[in-house]
């Protein structure tokens, strides 16, 4: 079999080696437009676990990467004069040039034909053509109708540089300036320099004047902005510098005799450091399918895509959440440094409170003590996790932050159920029959009244705010007790436009003396699990309203994860807490 691979990056080179080592193809050709000594950017990062599969598939390549690069376990967060070190996964950084050298030497050892300086080639006679040529793939462009690519461009500018500093670990740096917020990410390479990524909003890009500067001028400007963090060292450049990230998803990754891998098929925002990982995993999966189905290439390609697509899309979703975090990090700059550090660590939503506690128990001990001390006003050294901290909604005090929708012992708030004497409880009152509904709720002993607006879309509520109903709600409820609203969110509630509309509505409700909003999925067009919580993050941190989230959360860890990061104040948990059942068992 003859396989032509277009693109001599990590995906293409490693796939070529696998096809030769597994004796899948006797003729493997790699076409790369650049020469072998062309600079290939700065360092790439492999998170913990991403090299495990590589170590079993090709121990020689794994050993080379381990030997040339460097590893670390801590990440450092610097913001407004504070510095926090958080113990995390083990990471491994390696210069991209060094990585390509390891992969190129292995490919040559296995008899791969490496053809550098060839941007295009005649693939007549090839049994399979592989597009491993990155985001600007010529292979994908030649079959655009088959692959169905969709590209969306991010709004922030980023630049990938180097700096003559030997960073000991990965550092996230946030610097306030008169022009806006500047973000930087510095990480080791295993060499005498470190990689450096700058990230700025379009507004900051314009207001700082960087939009009118040439690349060298932007570098000198950033040296001044980050002088205190880069030891005054100069910034270095290789090739193009500034761009806006492009998100690529393809309807299909293959035809009968052509397939895409790595960034030619999909991209994931660089802030989760998984682009090279996904590319190499693609190569491993494709080689395995071609080995097992070598007599049926179209079937092998279909199986490869089926095996890989779900995992890749999970990483793309996590990367999008991470990107949104950094795009909106201004919401959180006033957080206490320890909570800011926690939230950044958990930004992709794939890392839970329990994960961080396992990786850095001392950090979580200090975090719990801080969180509980803030909630109670009493300093403490030892405290339970955030879900067990008391909460206050107006004049209502809650023992913890768990909300239940059925009679349950020990929760902080019972929602819409007959309360036990003295138990904090909330009632959801329909807009129709509002006054008698409130009178009945008060007579029953409820402590929080929520006006049910969940059947009305956010857009309709913005067009016709329920000011009159809210006035009735407030007028017919004790002044010392809080009132709120229930909003129903539909699919797509986490998009930028939908989130902005929701925040605008929340501000409108706030003007009508609303103390709290309960966000839950609509019945007719429910969002995916997690989307309501994403929208809640914006509402809570843009308006300061108390937020309760009902988003299919079933574990205390899920609630801790959301509450610790400041995405919500209270969580509805939908699991069986019937203590009599537990005792009988």
TrEMBL record:
SUPFAM superfamilies: FAD/NAD(P)-binding domain (SSF51905), FMN-linked oxidoreductases (SSF51395). Keywords: NAD, Oxidoreductase. One of its GO terms (molecular function) is oxidoreductase activity. Pfam families: FAD_binding_3. Gene3D superfamilies: 3.30.9.20, FAD/NAD(P)-binding domain. Residues 126-317 form the FAD-binding domain. This is FAD-binding domain-containing protein. It comes from Actinophytocola xinjiangensis.
């Amino acid at each position: 079999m003859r396989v032509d691979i277009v693109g001599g990056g990590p995906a293409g080179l490693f796939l070529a080696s696998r096809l030769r080592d597994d004796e899948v193809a006797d003729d493997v050709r790699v076409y790369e437009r650049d020469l072998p000594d062309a600079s290939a950017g700065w360092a790439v990062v492999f998170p913990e676990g991403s090299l495990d599969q590589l170590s079993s598939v090709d121990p020689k390549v794994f050993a080379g990467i381990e030997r040339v690069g460097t590893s670390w376990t801590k990440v450092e967060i610097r913001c407004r004069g504070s510095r926090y070190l958080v113990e995390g996964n083990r990471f491994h950084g390696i210069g991209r040039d060094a990585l390509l050298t390891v992969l190129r030497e292995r490919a040559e050892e296995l008899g791969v034909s490496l053809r550098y300086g060839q941007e295009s080639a005649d693939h007549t006679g090839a049994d399979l053509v592989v597009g491993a040529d990155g985001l600007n793939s010529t292979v994908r462009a030649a079959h655009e109708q088959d692959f169905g690519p969709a590209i969306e461009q991010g709004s922030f500018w980023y630049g990938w540089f180097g700096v003559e500093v030997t960073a000991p670990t990965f550092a996230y740096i946030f610097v306030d300036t008169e022009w806006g917020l500047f973000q930087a990410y510095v990480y080791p390479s295993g060499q005498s320099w470190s990689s450096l990524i700058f990230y700025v909003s379009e507004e900051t890009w314009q207001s700082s004047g960087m939009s009118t500067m040439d690349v060298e001028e932007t570098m000198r400007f950033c040296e001044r902005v980050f002088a205190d963090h880069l030891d005054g060292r100069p910034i270095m450049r290789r090739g193009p510098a500034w761009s806006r990230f492009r998100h690529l998803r393809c309807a299909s990754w293959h035809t009968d005799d052509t397939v895409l891998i790595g960034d030619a098929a999909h991209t994931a925002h660089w802030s989760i450091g998984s682009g090279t990982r996904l590319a190499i995993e693609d190569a491993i999966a494709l080689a395995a399918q071609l080995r097992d189905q070598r007599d049926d290439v179209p079937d092998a390609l279909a199986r490869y895509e089926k095996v890989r697509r779900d995992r890749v899309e999970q990483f793309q979703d996590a990367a999008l959440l991470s990107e949104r975090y950094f795009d909106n990090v201004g919401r959180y700059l006033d957080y206490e440094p320890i909570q800011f550090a926690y939230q950044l660590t958990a930004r992709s939503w794939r890392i839970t409170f329990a994960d961080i506690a396992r990786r850095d128990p001392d950090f979580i001990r200090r975090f719990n003590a801080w969180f509980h001390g803030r909630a109670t006003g009493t300093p403490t050294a030892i405290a339970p996790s955030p879900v067990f901290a008391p909460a206050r909604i107006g004049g209502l005090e809650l023992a913890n932050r768990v909300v239940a929708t059925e009679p349950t012992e020990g929760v902080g708030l019972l929602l819409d159920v007959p309360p036990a004497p003295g138990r904090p409880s909330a009632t959801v009152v329909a807009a129709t029959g509002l006054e008698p509904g409130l009178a009945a709720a008060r007579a029953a002993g409820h402590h929080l009244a929520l006006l049910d607006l969940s059947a009305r879309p956010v857009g309709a509520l913005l067009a016709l705010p329920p000011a009159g109903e809210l006035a009735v709600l407030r007028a017919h409820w004790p002044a010392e007790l809080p009132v709120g609203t229930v909003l129903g969110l539909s699919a797509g509630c986490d998009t930028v436009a939908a989130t902005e509309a929701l925040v605008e509505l929340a501000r409108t409700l706030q003007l009508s003396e609303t103390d709290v909003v309960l966000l839950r999925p609509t019945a007719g067009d429910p969002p995916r699990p997690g989307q309501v919580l994403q929208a809640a993050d914006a509402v809570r941190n843009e308006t300061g309203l108390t937020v309760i989230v009902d988003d299919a959360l079933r574990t205390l860890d899920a609630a801790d994860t959301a509450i610790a990061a400041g995405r919500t104040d209270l969580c509805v948990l939908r699991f069986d807490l019937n203590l009599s059942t537990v005792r009988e068992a």
